[in-house]
Amino acid sequence: MSSNPPVWFITAASSGFGKYIALEALSRGHKVIASARSASRIADLKGKGADVVTLDVTSPLAEIEKVAKEANDKYGYINHLVNAAGYILVGAVEETSPKEDFDTFATNVFGMLNVCKAFLPYLRATPGHRTIANFGSIGSWQGGAGYALYNGTKWACSGISEGMRAELAPLGIAVTVIEPGYFRTGFLNAGARVVSQRRLREYDETAVGKVRATLEAVDNNQPGDVVKGCKVLVDVLTMTGVAEGKEVPIRVALGSDSPPVIREKMRATEELLKEWEGITTRTDHE
User: Fold this and answer.
1) Cα–Cα distance between 224 and 181 in angstroms, integer?
2) Enzyme catalytic residues
3) Please, what CATH class does the domain formed by 7-257 belong to?
4) Banded pLDDT at 3 (limits 50, 70, 90)
């Protein structure tokens, strides 16, 4: 099997990181099984040599398991699983509806979980190097007005990925969470960015209103180059190129703006602990 090319299964491959990870892997002679809610949206990847399948990550687990079996049957093994499906829900917590809240968790968190559940039997059966890459965000680290639901889903992805890493390391599967900053993808485009149907004018002059305006201004002006980012990611996941000689890390802080956000969170958290630990730790039994 060592002489056979790696096989990738990628969700949400119609755009953004999913698409460009697929293209980068194909450029290296790897096999790619790309998925999207509509196969027509990934016809270009088929033209580049990918196998394409239809998959809505919010489908029942039994349906995702059928897709996983068919994908594994194609080549007899799967090395890399990439969970790239996700979107941002913009709106204050008071504005977003229970259905909007549920739907964003259904895609960003439960979809990721069910895809992992469906593919893990095949990853476990595959010898050699194997990875699961889940997408978090710099939003995994720092909450913000106007996108708290997105923060919640990405914190969940980060925490679940850390737990999965501990579970699967003994089985030889490396799990990582990718936490990108702002990359110039279609993520913030009007067709991809979901805005709460309810909008309260009381929030217009607050940080929520500023975030709405900022996201529109940032759209298509993000600093990160998704092609360069995906080249790094494929290197990291295959432990080649710039990642040769390194193990797959527990998280990938991708983009020039990602490490500063994490460092600021670390600094603020350390200050918080120093200020309060003399009070909050006096809670043990005598």
Assistant:
1) 7
2) 147
3) alpha beta
4) confident
